[in-house]
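Input record, target 12 of the design panel.
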């Protein structure tokens, strides 16, 4: 087996969610937990910086996921979980941070990632890293809307 280049190593670190994609059990869930932890560290940043982080991870993650998928000869390798990291970040954008919103966001995102409501599932057909990332971006958007609605309902119910 040929030695990996520095590009391979960096792409693999990004694509695997800092190695969480190597989890022997539910690598997507492990990647989502990494996304949650990283967003916790970012939650004090302004919305503008959070958006910059999301857009940066979208660009880097798309390139890294595509690189790793190509290197492995697999359209969507299970070790690639940067899409789950980004999906968690999108889920938690514009949401007041608390243990409850973090937990609710985590469970809603995992549900949307598994269910893949239309058109999320269709986005997987996009080529390369974009196909890997796009369905989780959609799942994150759906989870964010669901979480926002739950917060409105909870507020009006006096919870």
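The sequence produced for target 12 reads:
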């Amino acid at each position: 087996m040929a030695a990996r280049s520095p590009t391979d190593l960096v792409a693999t670190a990004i694509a695997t969610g800092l190695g969480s994609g190597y989890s022997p059990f539910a690598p997507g869930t492990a990647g989502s937990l990494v996304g949650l932890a990283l967003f916790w560290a970012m939650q004090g940043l302004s919305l503008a910086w959070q958006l910059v982080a999301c857009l940066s991870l979208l660009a880097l993650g798309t390139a890294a996921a595509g690189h790793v998928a190509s290197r492995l000869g697999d359209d969507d390798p299970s070790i690639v979980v940067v899409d789950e990291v980004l999906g968690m970040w999108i889920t938690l954008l514009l949401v007041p941070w608390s243990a409850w919103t973090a937990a609710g966001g985590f469970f809603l995102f995992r549900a949307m990632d598994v269910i893949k409501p239309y058109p999320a599932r269709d986005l997987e057909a996009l080529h390369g890293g974009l196909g890997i990332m796009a369905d989780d971006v959609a799942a994150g958007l759906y989870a964010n809307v669901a979480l926002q609605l739950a917060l409105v309902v909870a507020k009006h119910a006096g919870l």
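DSSP finds seven helices and no strands in the chain.
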